[in-house]
Amino acid sequence: MFGSAVPQRPGAIARRWSMAALLLLCWSGIAVERGWAQAEGEVPPAGEMLAKSQILTRPTGAIVFLEGEYGLAGRAPYTVTHFLRGNYRIKTKLRGYEDWSTDYYFNGKGNDKISIKLSPKTRVKALARSALVPGMGQAYSDQRVKGMIISALQFSSLAIFVRQELRYRDSIDDFNAALAAFQNDANQRSRLDAAQATLDRRYELRQRWAIITASVYLYNLIDVIAFFPSYHRHGLEVSMTASPPTDFTGNTAQVGVRAQF
User: Fold this and answer.
1) Which of 102, 104, 97, 137 is nearest to 120 (CA)?
2) What is the pLDDT of residues 85-95, one digit of tens each?
């Protein structure tokens, strides 16, 4: 009859129910996988919330580097918008302050807050480094080319001095041998004179290179103090004061000058 319902076969009904069950199972699996991914700290899809891990430095403005599964960089105060999880190497750089680095474990929740206090570079620290290794204080104070030149001069002069010292000691042995021969035989006078001349010449060379080596080392110390960069000051400040004479019977006045580096 027209308009009557067509009876469905049992096989078609079973296929529809199995399809619905399969779709429900797939949806449940996706939901569970998304929950596990967020729990493990993976980055959520675009459009969802972002992480707000913060890296702060004192003073602010340092360049921050993150080295791990991902490589990130920014300027402090730096907000990491990725859900990081695992060990990362954190490094900071700021002119006038010592480089800083440490290992840090991100928990994957995106709520980490790291506060870093940087240590300023000082003349005392630079002097200690140059006293230990000439040129190191200059490299520490961001004068690497000058530091390399001073180191090259220092170690070159030191190597030449050591060589001259060894040759001088050999000359002493030769002179002592010539002196012993002369004491046994007066005809060995010429040998003794030659040994004496060689000893005197090598002594002068030894003294000269000792002075050069010491001078380079002394210059290294003076330079690292006198020419340390003004990281935390703005140049040279000079002020002058003048006091007019209170007694006009005399022609005297007081003038004061104050300089601050």
Assistant:
1) 97
2) 999 999 999 99
CB-based contacts of 32, cutoff 8 Å, min separation 6: none
Confidence at 18, pLDDT banded by 50, 70, 90: low
As a whole number of angstroms, the distance between CA 114 and CA 116 comes to 7
- Cβ count within 10 A of residue 229: 14
Query: Side chain identity at 59, as an amino acid letter?
Result: P
CATH topology of domain 53-117: Immunoglobulin-like (2.60.40)
At residue 167, the pLDDT reads: 96
Listed as own residue / partner, the contacts of 141-145 with beta carbons closer than 8 Å and 24 or more positions apart are: 141/224, 141/228, 141/229, 142/95, 142/229, 143/227, 143/229
pTM over 0.85: no
Q: Which residue has the tokens 């105060």?
A: 77
Contact status, residue 209 vs residue 228, Cβ threshold 8 Å: no
Contact between 53 and 112 (Cβ < 8 Å): yes
Q: What is the pLDDT of residue 7?
A: 52
Is the pLDDT reported for residue 41 higher than 50? no
Please measure the distance between the N-terminal and C-terminal CA atoms of the chain and give it in whole angstroms. Answer: 109
The domain spans of the chain are 53-117, 125-226
What does the alpha-carbon distance between residue 218 and residue 154 come to, in Å, rounded to a whole number? 10
Q: What is the mean pLDDT of residues 11-36?
A: 55
Task: Return d(Cα 27, Cα 223) in angstroms, integer.
Answer: 72
User: What is the distance between the alpha carbons of residues 126 and 142, in angstroms, rounded to a whole number?
Assistant: 10
* pLDDT tens, residue by residue, 63-72: 999 999 999 9
